[in-house]
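Lab notebook, bench 4. Continuing the backlog of folding jobs that were queued last week. Each job is logged with the same field layout so the records can be merged later without manual cleanup. Today's entry covers ABC transporter ATP-binding protein, a 312-residue chain. Filled in by technician R.K.

JOB TYPE: sequence-to-structure
TARGET: ABC transporter ATP-binding protein
LENGTH: 312
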Amino acid sequence: MHLIEAHKLHKEFKRHTVVNDISFEIRKGEILGLLGPNGAGKSTTISMIASLLKPTKGEIFYEGDSVIEKPDTIRSKLGYVPQEIALYPEFTALENLQFFAKVYNIPRKERKEKIHQALEYVGLVDRAKSKVNEFSGGMKRRLNIASALIHGPDFLIMDEPTVGIDPQSRNHILEMVKELNKKGMSVLYTTHYMEEVEAICDRILILDHGHIIAEGTKEELIQLIQHQDHIEMKVETRDERFEKELMELVAVELIEFIEDAYMLSVKKQADVLPDIFRLAKEYQVHIYHIQVKKPRLEDVFLHLTGRSLRDE
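JOB STATUS: finished
OUTPUT FIELD FOLLOWS
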């Protein structure tokens, strides 16, 4: 049996369709990555799974029980880490976790051990008596996660848990997610960092405009664009005339400019480099690095949505 089964989920707000008849499952013991551009319907989907929103139509089952009819079925088993920090800044880390322990009705005799365990998971035992408003952004994110783990959930939803934090905190969170998963926890994970998805997710589901447009493992999704080559071309300055001419080339299927580089998707084995260098010379675009790359998950996302995940 799957942990979560969603059947034809549909959500409208004032006749505006946000999620459009999507069906999927979350398997026991897996980390499922949920990706999509802004406005794709990710947060609405998460809110429906967590029983925070009722779907306009459709059904959600948690271990065979209806989440809509019996929301307490999932609420007692769920740890939810929202995008926004949900902590009391004037309280200490310990006081925040004591509050959440009471919310989850953890017996008084078990609270101390549960709180210590949650602080250990996120590496904040030594800061238990520090106020949250003294914490860095990364520490607040980690304590936010601790509050979702305090009751020992079986299923964890993490909605962009690493936004705006330092690399050390990000690595700590990713390692923690992998460790929790090894112990049997199922995880639904959203992020704008593709390297996180590649590092921890067993399967990936891509949403766009309320529809599921792709689903599978990293390897299965990359198979979708094996008919293309991918060229990374670093330039000193972006030039819209050069860009327009590149798109006119028959072999070029997609162009994206990311930081200081053009990312081109071109037809497999097309001899496009001579034309690229000819146009660069014509428009005086200095190319200081060019590389034909193996397709990556980021290329799949770009191919399917027309946008880079990081730009979202």
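OBSERVATION: The chain has a mean pLDDT of 91.
SIGNED: R.K.
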